[in-house]
Structure formats: C-alpha cells, structure tokens
Write a structure and sequence with these properties.
Strand content of chain A: under 5%
Order of helices and strands of chain A: HHHHHHHHHHHHHHHH
CATH superfamily of chain A: Triphosphoribosyl-dephospho-CoA protein
Shape of chain A: globular
Radius of gyration of chain A: 17 Å
Helix content of chain A: 55-70%
CATH architecture of chain A: Orthogonal Bundle
CATH topology of chain A: Triphosphoribosyl-dephospho-CoA protein
Number of helices of chain A: 16
Mean pLDDT of chain A: 95
Number of strands of chain A: 0
Distance between the termini of chain A: 15 Å
Oligomer: homodimer
CATH class of chain A: Mainly Alpha
C-alpha cells in the first residue's frame, strides 16, 4: 500500500471502530449522518490524498481531498481528519514519518497553501470558534472572501493554523509536531486485534485525556469538560457502560469529532509504520 | 467519482449492508474473517480497478486487483466481486454501461487475459468446483501451472469462464451479459434510503431467487437449495427473523458469497448510473 492507500484505510478503520461515543461508528448512525457517508467520504477524498503523495502542494491537495469528500459524502464527514492526513501523507511519501519531519512539512507551507485552505471551506460547513479579535478578516468561515486579507498580511498556512490552535486541537496538532497523533499511534501499536477495534479503545483514551475542541465549539467548554470526565470515569468500565455512554452522546447530538480526527491520523501513522517505515 | 471510485465504493457499501445472511456485514464478523478485512480489500484492490479504468487488459487489471486485495486483507475477501467489477469498470470507462457492451468487453478478452486470470489464483484460496472432465488440466486451482495447457488450447478468458459457468454464477454473469447484476442494479435503484441498506434488501431477494453457487460448492447443492428456500420464506418477514437467519448461517459457516459478489456488481451499476451515465 502507498501512503495514500494507508490514509484512505485509516479513514475507513476509524469509522468502523465501535463504540466511539458520540461519533458515527460501525454500530451507530446519527440522525442526519449515516455510516456509509463516511465510506463515501473516504473514497471521494482519495484523489487529494494521492495528490499529496505525488508532491502536490499541501493546501491544493487538501482542497482536492475536501472537495472530493464533500461531493461523495454529500456533507462534511472528514474535514479535520484530512487536514491532519494530507501533510502526514506528504511527509511519508518523501521519507521517514517522524514528528519533526511532519512539522517541517507544515512549516514549509506558503500563502498559496493558506489560500487553498480557505477555498476548502467553500465545499463544506465546518463548526469553528470565533477567531481572535484581530483576526476577524481571516475567519475561515468567510471561505475565499478571506483570501485578500490573507495575502495582504502574507500569512502561510502554518501561520493561519497557529491562529486557531487555541480553540481547535486539529490546528494544534499541525503546528505542534502532531503530538497527540503520534501518541495515538503508539497506543494503537501497543494493542492487539483488528485495527478498528484498537482505534476505538485509543479514541476512548484520547477522549478521557483532553476535552474535545469540537464539542467545546458546538456545546461550550463545560459540556466538553463533562464529556472528558465521563470518558475518564468509564475508561476501565465494562463494554455495556461504554455502549450506554455512546448511545447517550449520540442522542444528545454531542460529537467529539476532533478526537475522531486525531484517531484517524494515529491510525495512519500506525498503518504506515506497520508497513515497514519507522 | 470515476468508475474505479464507484467500484471501490460498491465494495464498501456491499460489506456495510446488513443483514446479509451468512456474509460478513456491518453487524457480523466470521470467526476468522473480520469486517475490516473487507475495508482493506477494497483499498488494496483499487490500483487494479484504476488500471481497468485506464485501459489496461481485463486480465492484467484483475490480477492486479486481486493481488492488492489479498496483500491488504491478508486473505480472499472480494475475488468474485472483482471478477465482475473489472470488466464493468472497463466498459463504463469507455462508454455507456449496458449489458451488451459489458458482454463485448468479456468477449474481447484474449489468451493473455486467461493467463492473467490463472495467475490471480496464486494470490488467494478460492473455493471452486471440480472442472468438467475434459478440462482437468485447466483447473483454475492449478494457478499458473495451468497456463501451458491454456496456451496449447488457445482459450481466451471468455472461453475459460464459459467452462465454469455451470457451477459458478460469477462466471455465468460474465458470459451471460451480467443478467443478474443488472437486475440487482434495477432493484437497488427502485429502493430508497442509504445504498448499503438497499443492497442488503437486494441481496436477500437475490438469495431467495437462486441457489448460491459458492454454498453449493462448499456445502453441496442440497444445502444451497435449502438456504434459497429459507430466504424465500423470509423475504417478507420482519427484521428479527432475518437477523436470526443471518446469525444461523454465520454460526454454520455457510457463506453465500456469490450472491454478495453479484450484489456488489449491482451496486456498481446503480452508483454509476446514479452519477449520470445511463
């Protein structure tokens, strides 16, 4: 398998793992989001992942992946996961997949990559926190309308992501050497059994360790903190208690999507290292 | 989506549909075959599907798809489905996807395609019936050792498949204008809701209509006939009765895999036509 294949498979294993409380998984759909839309998203994203593998700019590859995902899934299924996967695929296609080299891939992005990133928002609805007060013109929710302000300030993709790193743990991964991603990969590698089942266990551990930033954005920081505490309390619980927690979050429409994104990225790292690249 | 994408998605939707009695599906694993191996098989098969799309020989594309599938899934997950999908992808990539044109794609295969087909058996274990008495030297279970006999007789892939069409309904599809495949596609198109759920209903109807030839090969024609009758009796039953039937077949290790293969091919046709090619 090539890095693009591994990334696609990581997306598929991620959604197949169950229970992943609050997320669509092998056993659960959301009212307006079906398991199979994630399968379609993984298929649609592939050309963008393949572009990253063959050396296309990170931003352009990401926009292509998001565009393909949104067309196939007919909604936003894996935006954050792709934002993590694209630079990781690019890194893996050019040499060893290490935190330092992944960070360098992000650091080497340009203003053009940032413009691509803004264009990607045109394809989907993404829940985002308000930007810092001095960065309103750069609010990603503006899509391509933010590009002139971006060019004026000469911000690279890495710099734009740094603006969001406080409120979005996907952005924090990208500007922080993918710390939780590589920890997730190590956690997956320490477990045994099918990758999708390992990933569900790793998801639970990630959720117990840090409040999910998508939950914080959509339901407020108190809810995110409460979800984290519940996950920590249930970490060593039997399966039925975990399943009940999963059912509860789905019924309350609480979706720890950032944790799922990091799980998918961790799966990619584990799959890639499992294929022989260390 | 390109035809190769649609074929990959058909493989994913097929395994996601549940209940599909006797098959791995979203809700069921077999003891030695996990749901995620089908996800991996669909990822691994992609390069062969892409080869078919870009005009590579049907046989060579099929061998590449099977090789990639087997490497990723570490077993045989979708051999029969790929044998149907490769000529369908090739047909769709060159013009309208009609039974006549699909049949022509098969008819145009050569002795080289047949040799590729035999090589594909080297990658996996496939359950096959004994060949006709005068075709023992061409037994596909011989893998590449059968190629000299094949060349001596000058048989094309279409001719080799015709030898197996009595005992294998995948081969029968290929040499018979994909009749059940296109019927399955029409059945899927008539239903509503997620494709994977439609496909599970279509699978049930296919299983009720004709005895599964993989079950006949692995458990004998009486068992295959009994499974077909049970499916027919349960066709309009409530979900719990269908689920119980699915559990029973899995526990008896009865796998109507040919019916699943035709379901996947029907999904491909439906997805492709849904994208605007009629």
């Amino acid at each position: 398998m090539t890095p693009a294949d591994e990334a696609q498979l990581a997306l598929l294993y991620e959604v197949a793992g169950t229970p992943k409380p609050g997320n669509v998984d092998r056993a659960r759909d959301h009212e307006d989001l079906h398991f199979e839309q994630f399968l379609a998203g993984a298929v649609g994203a592939r050309s963008g992942l393949a572009a990253a593998e063959s050396g296309e700019r990170v931003g352009a590859s990401f926009e292509e992946a998001v565009s393909g995902m949104a067309a196939a899934a007919r909604t936003n299924t894996q935006f954050g996961a792709l934002l993590l996967l694209v630079p990781l695929v690019r890194t893996a296609s050019e040499g060893p997949l290490t935190p330092e080299r992944a960070r360098r891939t992000v650091d080497e992005t340009t203003v053009e990559d940032a413009a691509d990133f803004y264009r990607a928002f045109e394809h989907v609805d993404v829940a985002l926190d308000d930007p810092p007060a001095d960065a309103d013109a750069l609010d990603a929710r503006r899509g391509r309308d933010a590009i002139p302000a971006l060019r004026k300030r000469g911000l690279t993709l890495a710099e734009v992501l740094a603006l969001g790193a406080d409120s979005d743990d996907v952005a924090a991964e990208l500007v922080g050497e993918f710390e939780r991603t590589f920890r997730a990969a190590a956690d997956i590698e320490e477990r045994s059994g099918p990758y999708s089942e390992r990933a569900a266990a790793t998801f639970f551990r990630l959720l117990a360790a840090e409040a999910d930033t998508l939950v914080a954005t959509t339901h407020g920081p108190e809810v995110a903190a409460a979800v984290r505490r519940r996950a920590a309390d249930l970490l060593d619980a039997e399966a039925p208690a975990k399943e009940a927690f999963a059912d509860e979050l789905v019924s309350r429409d609480i979706n720890p999507g950032t944790t799922a994104d990091i799980t998918a990225a961790g799966l990619f790292v584990a799959l890639h290292r499992g294929e022989g690249d260390d």
